[in-house]
Amino acid sequence: MNATGPRRGWWPRSVRARTALAAASTAAVILAGIGWWVHHDVYRESTGIAQGQTQKQFLALVDQLEKGAVPARRSTVPYEIVATGRRAAVAYGGGMEEFDPGTRHVLPAPPKAELPAPPDEGPNWGYTTRPVRLPARPDSAPGDRFGKDGGTYQVMYDDVRADELSGDTVAALGVAADAQLRVYVVVLPHAAEDIAGTITEATDRLLLRAGLVSLVLIAAVAYFAVRIALRPVEAIRVLTASVTANDPRERVTVPNTGDEIAALATTINTTLQRLDDAAAQQRRFVADAAHELRSPLTTLLASLEVALAYPERTDWPAAATTAARQTRRLQALAEDLLFLARLDTRTPAAGPDTVDLTALASRLTEQYPLTERPLTLTCDSTAPAHVHGNPDEYERLLRNLIDNAARHATHRIQITVRNRDGRVDLTVHDDGPGVPTEDAERIFERFVRLDDARSRDHGGTGLGLAIARDLAHRHRGTLTLTPRTLGACFELRLPQAPAPADT
């Protein structure tokens, strides 16, 4: 029996629970991967949106300046407008007041405007981005946008010529007519990250809730789907549990789904049918064996009881002869039964030895005793016929065929051995009454009685041909009854083996 190993404490026993756990675990891994991808994609898109908003506000500041308007200090992005020849910033806001640019501009001033002005090439919305080091500050508040030590930031800037503005605008800005103004916008990375972080945080919470709900639904669906799918298996298990070796007549219902469960049900029914056939064969064999043992025992017991009841009128030599004959019959029957039992428990396989069937048939022909009645036993062979197998089992097979022929032959028994197309054909032909065609296979069954002259009334046990066929199958051969006009002809076919090297 197969031993059942110890069950893991953390692993559920139920197939439904294991499947639900496996499905939920797989879904969790997939959802975690999707969540990671969505998180990073949303973060990247949010950062891009934040930078786009900074760029949009920068272009709006440049547009306001070119139209003569001074931008307000309230701005979502830090900006500063500086001019050539001006110590303080022209305008600033969005957090640049932390550096007090009203006394001195923070970002570098542009060079003087080129005179004369270059030709106008139409609207130009281009700008430049480069890193700029901001100065350190002696004091800073916790809510300031810039650190105490300043730091390097990316800035967007574009230049505007003062001679392109109106005189009132130039006067209002306090710059010279030949000055050049530069608009700076500082790109704050933490601002973009704050925007992206806010969006991704909301997205992560939504994904987490959706993922948890999805895991519960997936586990529940997997659990109940497997539960429904395993209902036929449970029905098969319950019905199979009621089958016993003494009564294996139950059969499971095969669903018409054509799936693995239907195949399982078909296989179980086939196995139950083999079990039923084996049990019926065993019961029949036991009954036949008991019947065969009863006949010689009854004869022996009756002979001895009569002899003991009338000792003065008993022919004791005849009684002893009858007892000896019945005892020998019992001995032969017991030996055949034991031999069949050994054949049933051994693996069919040809042995490693090489046997010459021609030499074996010739030796048995010379040694076989033909004392009860005159018979002619001959062997016809043209060359050695080598086969793989056990020599003793081949001798038992051939002797059983000769015994069967000797019991039913009228005058002659002919053994023929031939090599044909990679096989060895051996036939044992007698000139007896023969076997009806409808009984050609039944005579190889154990304890089969025929109603004609080929019965076991001549001393056979009814197991010789069954043993012979089993031995033929063990050596990957066949034993059949070949139709003949006169008598019975048994044909043995075996795979031919190469001749030994010493021959």
Automatic annotation (TrEMBL):
Keywords: Kinase, Membrane, Phosphoprotein, Transferase, Transmembrane, Transmembrane helix, Two-component regulatory system. Its EC number is 2.7.13.3. InterPro entries: HAMP_dom, HATPase_C_sf, HATPase_dom, His_kinase_dom, HisK_dim/P_dom, HisK_dim/P_sf, Sig_transdc_His_kin-like_C, TCS_sensor_his_kinase. It is found in: Cell membrane. Residues 227-280 form the HAMP domain. The chain crosses the membrane at residues 20-38, 206-226. Residues 288-498 form the Histidine kinase domain. PANTHER family: SENSOR HISTIDINE KINASE TRCS, SENSOR HISTIDINE KINASE YKOH. This is histidine kinase.
